[in-house]
Amino acid sequence: MVEDIELNRLYWHSRRGMLELDVLLVPFVKEVYPSLDDTDRECYRRLLECEDQDMFGWFMERTESQDPELQRMVRMILDRVQPK
């Protein structure tokens, strides 16, 4: 199980100050992150190291990350909120 300290840290790092990112990342870290495997957790942490403008483009589906793992994480987050 994910430790409370780690979840709190990730919660605050997921709050980006850009509403479009906040509404995607904050619920994801609260509701999905604890159930991810170690590989996906590491990928999410790497995603949080990216620039907000890059992430905005990825989540608005204007561009894609050059890193396939990061793009997979973006897709995972988007699939959670977009109906298929």
Number of helices: 5
Low-confidence stretches: none
Percentage of residues in DSSP E strands: under 5%
Largest sheet descriptor = none
The span between the termini is 30 Å
Q: Could you list some keywords that capture this structure?
A:
5 helices; mainly alpha; DNA polymerase, domain 1
Report what the structure shows.
- This protein has five helices and no strands.
- The chain is an all-alpha fold and 84 residues long.
- It has a single domain (4-81), classed as Flavinator of succinate dehydrogenase (DNA polymerase, domain 1, Orthogonal Bundle), CATH 1.10.150.
- α1 packs antiparallel against α2 (19-31) and α3 (38-48) crosses α5.
- The longest helix has 14 residues, at 68-81.
- It is globular, with a radius of gyration of 12 Å.
- It starts with a helix and ends with a helix.
- The model has no long low-confidence stretch (mean pLDDT 94).
Task: Characterize this entry briefly.
The chain is an all-alpha fold.
Topology:
Blueprint: H1 4-14, H2 19-31, H3 38-48, H4 52-59, H5 68-81
Helix pairs in contact: 1-2, 3-5
